[in-house]
Amino acid sequence: MEVKGTLVKKLDIESGISKAGKEWQKQSIVLDNGGDFNNEVCVSAFGDKVKDLTALEVGMHLTILCNVYSREFKGRYYNSIDGYHFSNTSNAPVTLGDTQMKEDLPF
């Protein structure tokens, strides 16, 4: 799945030891997808992917490839969005599919 939006917040890195005795780390970021309702999306990065977030700054426009899944716990379901590829699209050229560009063209 692909998520696009503007980075509005980087949360602190979390770390710990799993039940299997392995160290883990996780960092989450919050994107504003520009929607009218429920416009903020929290995406998490685990393990080696945490280092990909160090170059990201608040205000950047991002495209994130991610896995979306749910887990059941005591009859309730909890959703997670785990990012695995983070792209800064702040300086990317505008595509012809963009409505704003179509309005700016003289023809």
Summarize the structure.
The chain is mainly beta. The chain is built from 1 helix and 6 strands; from the N terminus they run ββββββα.
What is the element layout, followed by pairings?
Blueprint: E1 2-10, E2 14-17, E3 23-32, E4 40-46, E5 61-73, E6 76-88, H1 99-104
CATH class category label: Mainly Beta
Provide the CATH topology. Answer: OB fold (Dihydrolipoamide Acetyltransferase, E2P)
| Uncertain stretches of 5 or more adjacent residues | 94-102
Major β-sheet annotation: 6 strands, antiparallel
Q: Compute the gyration radius: what is it?
A: 17 Å
CATH architecture: Beta Barrel
How large a portion of the residues is in β-strands, by DSSP E?
Answer: over 45%
Characterize the quaternary organization of these chains: single chain
Mass-distribution shape = globular
Mean pLDDT over the full residue set:
87
The SS-based structural class is: mainly beta
CATH superfamily: Nucleic acid-binding proteins
Order of helices and strands: EEEEEEH
Count every helix, treating DSSP H or I runs of 4 or more residues as helices: 1
Termini separation comes to 35 Å
Descriptive terms for the model:
6-stranded antiparallel β-sheet; 107 residues; OB fold (Dihydrolipoamide Acetyltransferase, E2P); 6 strands; mainly beta
